[in-house]
Write a structure and sequence with these properties.
Blueprint: H1 3-22, H2 37-72, H3 88-93, H4 101-114
């Protein structure tokens, strides 16, 4: 990967990180059990959705920061599983990817077997 390509990717990752950090926080995560059973169930559902949103945002921020760290340490663009270069099309689609397509498919297949 050329220095120019890495600079372009870095800018994209930094912009994505900044945008993710500016995103509005989800609604209050406090669970209030007032009202009838239907109101309580709705409140629980809204809280679970907000918690998922927080978890997804945290995961993405972690991935973006990790990708920037890999650029700094010259490890960016290589699969963490097999060590082979990640194809440019995958990096273009998912610049925070840590695995090549083949290894990612294996990981997802293994997770599906466990579930």
């Amino acid at each position: 990967m050329t220095k120019k390509q890495l600079t372009t990717i870095r800018k994209r990752l930094e912009a994505e990180l900044a945008a993710s950090m500016r995103a509005a926080p989800p609604e209050d995560l406090a669970l209030t059990l007032t009202g009838d059973i239907a109101d309580q169930a709705s409140s629980r559902t809204q809280r679970e959705f907000a918690a998922q949103t927080v978890n997804e945002r945290h995961r993405k921020l972690t991935q973006l920061r990790s990708a920037l760290g890999r650029i700094d340490s010259s490890e960016y663009g290589y699969c963490e599983e097999c060590g082979e270069p990640i194809r440019p099309k995958r990096i273009e689609a998912v610049p925070w990817a840590t695995t090549c397509v083949a290894c990612q498919e294996e990981l997802e297949s293994a997770l599906a077997e466990v579930a």
